[in-house]
Amino acid sequence: MNVVVEYRKGKPMVKALDTLCSALKENKQDENLKIMDFFKSIDEEILSKHPDITAGGLNSCHGYWYEAIISLIAWNHFATNQTSNLIIPLPNISQFDISTLYEEELSNYLSELKSKVMEITGVSLISSNPDFVIISRNAIECANLEIRPLTATPENLKMIQDYHKRLVGCCGFDEIIGYLSVKTSLRSDRRLQICHEGSLFKSMYSHLKTRSWDINAKGIFYYAAATSLNESDIKALRTVATHSLSNVHEIPQSAVDAAYKADTLTSIYRMIDQISA
User: Fold this and answer.
1) Is 45 a catalytic residue?
2) Helix, strand or coil, per DSSP, at residue 154
3) Which of 21, 93, 145, 247 ranks highest by number of CB atoms within 10 Å?
4) Mind spelling out the 3-state secondary structure of 41-67?
5) Which are the contacts of 164, defined by CB distance < 8 A and separation ≥ 6?
6) Are 175 and 135 in contact (CB under 8 A)?
7) Spatial separation of the C-alpha atoms in residues 69 and 23, rounded to whole Å
8) Which of these is catalytic: 174, 197, 233, 257?
């Protein structure tokens, strides 16, 4: 396996995509192999060649690798299934305003809302982006994407990571179907983040529903996935979307619609098949 490292200010840093793709190429994956066991084997190879790499640096790679693997599986599922919707990764909030995926009028509604919240309360409406967005196949035409299966190369993974830029302004009201948050582990703060994001994005959808006068709106979904998921995690994620409590005309909504234990390639394939339908 080729471990790719670059030095920044004299400190070694793993080039995550290059190293992951090399590991995937060398190790023909057993689809039932635990993802974290696979990452551990990469860690051991890295440390055997670069023992000064820190544990923190490796942990950062784990999250990045997990998202990259899910990205590639999701894209290839979309490319090979004519009825599948598109699931693509999103950068963090400092790099991308997720509301710009909507058509201009809808995006402007959310911009007005964010400005009003900031003006009145002095706080930001959105504190973080979900890891992935699920977009209707109907919205893809305007992005002019070349739809074909891709292999695991750094270039292909970077291309998938940039697809959100091609979809700016492409999505009608019901063409953003939902979001997916993925974690290699679920600490208590991460559970809270997932529930907060789910509740927030559902409330923004509700705002668009009101502004668009669409009483028959389908609703929007928010999913979570992790390599480890126990009963305590599932219970903690069963939280109400708080905005839905104030509307007497609708039943309360869950902040998170489903949580998946995605700890092997097989379980990731299964999850993608379900949430992209």
Assistant:
1) no
2) helix
3) 21
4) HHHHHHHHHCCCCCHHHHHHHHHHHHH
5) 88, 89, 90, 91, 96, 101, 133
6) yes
7) 12
8) 197
Phi (first) and psi of residue 186, to 5 degrees: -115, 85
Type and span of the H or E element at 161: helix 154-161
> Exactly one of 67, 174, 233, 263 is catalytic; which is it?
67
> What is the rounded average pLDDT for all residues in the chain?
89
Provide the token pair at 74.
């999701």
Active-site position among 43, 131, 233, 257: 131
Q: Looking at per-residue confidence, does 202 or 244 come out higher?
A: 202
Q: Is 183 a catalytic residue?
A: yes
Q: Kindly name the residue from 43, 183, 209, 263 that is annotated as catalytic.
A: 183
* DSSP H or E segment with residue 177: strand 176-183
> pLDDT tens digit string along 21-67?
999 988 766 788 899 999 999 999 999 988 888 888 899 899 999 99
**Spatial separation of the C-alpha atoms in residues 209 and 182, rounded to whole Å:** 27
Q: How far apart are CA 125 and CA 114, in angstroms?
A: 6
Average pLDDT (212-233) is: 89
Compute the CA torsion angle 26, 224, 186, 205 (nearest 10 deg). Answer: 130
Q: Which residues contact 176 (CB under 8 A, 6 or more apart)?
A: 101, 102, 133, 134, 135, 136, 220
Residue 247 has pLDDT above 90, yes or no: no
Number of H helices, E strands in the chain: 9, 7
